[in-house]
Design brief:
The protein is an alpha/beta fold. The protein has a domain of about 80 residues. About 40% of the residues lie in helices and about 15% in strands. The strands form two sheets. The chain has a nine-stranded mixed β-sheet with strand order 6-7-5-4-3-2-1-10-11. Strands 8-9 form a two-stranded antiparallel ribbon. Strand 6 and strand 7 form a beta hairpin. Helix 2 packs parallel to helix 4, helix 4 packs parallel to helix 5 and helix 7 packs antiparallel against helix 8. The longest helix is centred in the C-terminal third of the chain and has 27 residues. The radius of gyration is 20 Å and the shape is globular. The structure holds iron/sulfur cluster. The site of iron/sulfur cluster (SF4) has 12 residues, from loops.
């Protein structure tokens, strides 16, 4: 998958107001507050991706246009069409914090769905009833798949989000029975976990949820969920390595690159390619070059240099953890808990 920043602005999390937004600092590096990815830049990216087999393969799997809030980009429909040359799986990730069907932001999403793009959204309980719910009903009439992201600060918050979705899908037509069944499984699991172990650690949480699928697929509808623990981000934009729901556990990141695979890359607003889904707040220093400025040959050579740093850095991180030096940065510039 390739994540591509398509917009700096975010109507809900105005960057100066939400210090916990994970893209607060990476986006604040842009001097222009009205920065949008432009169609010409998207075309440059496509041309280069086509020349690099490794990135072309990632792009074929899925391209996720994100931000900021990509529906705010006035060119997002055109940009969507440009990336569609690489894959039919171009997704738009929205906060769905839109106040009316007359909004241009909503009109853009509708147009994208009519071209068979998929709109995914993050559930925000504070705007669910007034803004997200009415438009989600419309989305279900326009596309037959959906991914919901749920960011949670406590396990009980996650349970409440499941209850919200169960109420919602229970009010919809019969074709969502499999969605309701999946959501019901999670609700029961979370309720039993909270009953037995309300202050559970991450290991107990994962063990309890083990084996439950996070998606369901019928011939009528495909539904998936991402459950993402919240993290504090400090004033320098650096992400804490303890999740909010599990503050006593260090969040180890298993880097796939030393294991020989690249599963995801993120292209930031500058064109910088960060290996993995780091939007910038993990401060991983080895990059893969710049998709706007560098030639494909330069990017491929940078990729090899960075790969070697990750192999060496993850090994040193492991050694540091075994020797009581967990949390120390290594000279390779990879975050201390990447292993
Ligand atoms: S070292 Fe960590 S931050 Fe860097 S690419 Fe690997 S997992 Fe991502």
């Amino acid at each position: 998958m390739i994540n591509i920043f398509a917009e700096a602005n975010c109507n809900r999390y105005v960057r100066d107001e939400c210090q916990y937004c994970h893209v607060y600092e990476p986006l604040s590096q842009i001097s222009k507050s009205d920065w949008h990815l432009m169609p010409e830049q998207a075309q440059i990216m496509v041309n280069k991706i086509l020349q690099m087999e490794i990135f072309h393969e990632l792009a074929k799997r899925e391209i996720n246009l994100t931000g900021g809030e990509p529906s705010q980009n006035p060119h997002i429909v055109e940009i969507f069409k440009i990336f569609r040359k690489l894959t039919p799986n171009v997704r738009i990730h929205t906060n769905l914090d839109i106040n009316s069907e007359k909004s241009q932001r909503w009109q853009r999403l509708v147009e994208i769905m009519k071209f068979s793009g998929r709109v995914d959204f993050t559930l925000y309980p504070t705007v669910w009833e007034s803004r997200q719910k009415p438009l989600l009903i419309k989305i279900l009439g326009l596309q037959n798949e959906l991914i919901v992201n749920m960011i949670f600060e406590k396990v009980s918050d996650l349970l409440n989000q499941f209850k919200t979705l169960i109420t919602f899908f229970g009010e919809q037509e019969k074709k969502f029975q499999s969605v309701l069944s999946l959501l019901g499984t999670y609700q029961a699991k979370l309720e039993s976990l909270l009953g037995e172990n309300p202050e559970c650690n991450e290991r107990a949480f994962l063990k309890h949820m083990e084996g439950v699928e996070n998606y369901t697929c019928t011939e009528n509808f495909t539904f998936g969920m991402n459950m993402i623990p919240g993290f504090y981000v400090n004033k320098n934009g650096e992400r804490a390595m303890n999740a909010q729901p599990f503050p006593k556990d260090i969040n180890l990141l298993e880097c796939t690159i030393p294991r020989g695979t690249i599963e995801i890359i993120t292209v930031q607003q500058t064109g910088e390619i960060t290996p993995c889904c780091d939007v910038g707040n993990l401060k991983c220093q080895p990059k893969f070059g710049n998709l706007l400025m560098d030639s494909p040959a330069e990017i491929m050579s940078q990729l090899e240099v960075s790969r070697k740093k990750m192999v060496s850095g993850t090994l040193k991180n492991q050694q540091n953890m075994n020797n009581g030096k967990a949390g120390e940065w290594v000279e390779e510039g990879i975050p201390p808990y990447c292993v």
